[in-house]
Amino acid sequence: MKHLFFILIITLCAQLALAQVARPVALPQKLAQENPELNKFKLLKPQGEAWFYEDANYKGQKYMLKRGLYTLKNLGMKANDFFSSAIIPQNLNVLVFEDDNCLGDNYSLQNDNVYELPSPSTFNSNFEKVLIKSGKTTLNQELSGYKNINDKISSILIWSDQDEVIFYFDCNYNGTKLSVEPANTRFCLLYTSDAADEPRHV
């Protein structure tokens, strides 16, 4: 009788152990789920295009901006200080200005690793604390590190490393000329009255 009881106990323990092994293991949830907009950007892989958003973490109204110069008029806005986040691919340079018509403090934004990594790595999900490449104040002071540029952007310049961007403040290519050389995020101020040199449009 004792022998039978011992076998029964062993059998029950074995069944309980097998039940524990067969039970599905609940995997912990990801600490940070990928944002739907990041997934969309990674899937579509837009060429020469940065996406800017009204709210942080790629939410709110979205503007898909190709290479070029954008002022409040270009963007169809009556008021400035609108953007709070952006997705910027590796092949683009983005320079943002606090005032319209490329005036005021300016900041060169970091590119986001949205294509290469399995889980996208981003720098520009919250403009309240964004890591900038470089910048300058209106007094020509150098800026770097983390800055709060949330709702401070009023004009945007986007170009690739292959572009040379030249634009003028006066009609017929006269007056102050701003030039951005390829792969260079710094402005060169040139004063000219020669209307023969036409800009290369991007």
Describe this entry's structure for a reader.
Strand 7 (130-136) and strand 8 form a beta hairpin. The protein has helices spanning 2-22, 36-44, 72-75, and strands at 49-55, 59-66, 68-70, 85-87, 92-99, 103-109, 130-136, 142-147, 155-160, 165-168, 175-180, 188-192. The protein has a six-stranded antiparallel sheet with strand order 3-9-5-6-7-8. A three-stranded antiparallel sheet has the order 2-1-4, covered by helices on one side. A three-stranded antiparallel sheet has the order 10-11-12, with no helix packed on it. Residues 18-32 and 182-202 have low confidence and may be disordered. The chain has 202 residues and is of the alpha+beta class.
* Fold-level CATH name of the domain at 36-160: Gamma-B Crystallin, domain 1
Radius of gyration: 27 Å
The N- to C-terminal Cα distance equals: 92 Å
Biggest sheet: strands, sense, closure? 6 strands, antiparallel
Reading off the top of the CATH hierarchy, the class of the domain at 36-160 is best stated as Mainly Beta
| Helix-strand string | HHEEEHEEEEEEEEE
| Mean pLDDT over the full residue set | 75
Strands, total number:
12
CATH architecture of the domain at 36-160: Sandwich
| Fraction of residues in helix | 10-25%
Q: Find the CATH superfamily of the domain at 36-160.
A: Crystallins
| Content-based structural category | alpha+beta
Q: If strands are numbered along the chain, what order do they take across the biggest sheet?
A: 3-9-5-6-7-8
What overall geometry do the principal axes of the alpha carbons give? globular
Q: Into which percentage range does the β-strand content fall?
A: 25-35%
Number of helices: 3
Query: Low-confidence spans: pLDDT under 50, at least 5 residues?
Result: 18-32, 182-202
